[in-house]
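Office hours follow-up: a student asked to see two folded examples consecutively, so here they are.
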Amino acid sequence: MINPVQLWGSRRRAFWKEAAYYWSYVGRSLSQGFLFFALIGGMYVYIQWLETLPENFAYYWLVVPLITWPIAHSPIRTFLQQADRVFLLPAESRIGTYFNRALRYSFLWQAAAAILMTLVLWPLYKIAKPEAPIFLLLVGFLLLVKWGNLLGSWQEGKVVHKRSRWIVRWVRWIASASVVYTLYEQGVPAAGLLSLVWIVILWIAYRKMSQYPVPWEYLIQKEQAHKSMHYLFFSWFIEVEHLPNRVKPRRWLTAVTSRFPFHPKSTYLYLFTKTYIRSETASIAIRLTLIGALLLILLPNPIWKTAAFAVFVWMSCVQMSSLDQYHRYTFWLKLYPISPGDKKSAIIRISFASLLGQTLLLSAVLLWQCEAVGYSWAMVAIMLMFISMYCFIGMRKKLKRTSLQL
């Protein structure tokens, strides 16, 4: 007979045992030192920026989106596996304790992220609005909203129709953003009344929709996607043997491969271009570029602008190092008479094209926003040389070592 409490405990311990193994390699790399100094530098820039704020600064344009994200983004970690749809299905009526623990576990981690973001933005809020409520009262209310979002996320997963699920999710995000805005502008009482209105609206919406008792397929899919993100991150520092693929169509980009010549030498170029476009690697590259461009616009000091430019180009290089992990254990590739050198050249070409595009976009923003033009041009030239050396020297050596290990 299945014991939900023991099953949850064993699944959670197994995940963290594996994660601890990979984190040990992350800790041995030089990246954590670099990120530590980047964090210290970011805190210094943030403090300096707070001292230059005008009296009528529209803080809510910055605070509301940054607080809404950790509040409304509410994935539920269940540690479910593919086989559970068969072996746990007979125990569906007795598995409630398992999912209750999954909700509490998810809440603790996400609440910590929400508290951290609230703490970081508190000085900005306090300067822009001196009559701000007590910090503990603000955090307590946000945690209640966070718990409501987590329960709403659970109900969304049970919705049968995908389109209805997306609609009600967007409504929940809009509700969270409006509550956060009201909280920071009007205070706790007004935000509490608005929250009650949204709770009634969402409760009625959930009751009107067809729902599964337990959305096994949806929960397993989300759990696999979450593990995929973990493995993708760890692959920046160590070779991950079981890197799952999270495929996204992105039809507006896949037409790029239609320009490749129909020739055996283009096989790997076609395959890895499709893989890059449809995987999380492209998503991370887009997010890094957008966040980097935003920082280049917001940072006031030219030195910090160029430093942020260098950091985001470096982070883009690190995330591109995971591209060679895809299809590494795909057996059918070894059946075709294709040269291994074509794979190396394809990965290097794709990586260089992506990094060059990101660097040029960030360079355009840097040159547009930075007053020290000569210093900016020098940094752009240095980073262009850096990505060239990274792709054509560093990545080539890494791919050579990988091929020898295989």
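And the second, which I mentioned at the end of office hours:
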Amino acid sequence: MGPAAPIPAAELRAAVDPVRPWLAGEAEPPPRPVLAAAVKTSARWLAQQAPGRSVELRVPPHVAVQLVPGPRHTRGTPPNVVETDPATWLRLVTGALTWDEALARGALTASGNRADLSPYLPLAPLR
């Protein structure tokens, strides 16, 4: 099985745009498949923009991806892990929340010296 096909920016926007009213507090939570698509597509898009295997991004229960150049992790718990919930992740990727704000609120955990994803957020096509 070869590498996944690249995700175009239009596909990223199409996956995230339906959840924006919910993120802004203007709508009820989206159906689970819509939320899952937004989380998975945005995480995988970031992984293609920052390819590598030195950081593991976890957004349970939807996705875990490895990204960011650096030493490759192969077994056990990765030394660099970022974990957050779907709403926080989507607010980070759209720019509705900054990395520092999320950390200060305790809305995400980032362990390891490479686990700062702030240089990559918000995702450029979603600004």
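Two things to take away from it. The chain has a mean pLDDT of 92. The helical segments are 9-16, 20-23, 32-49, 86-94, 99-105.
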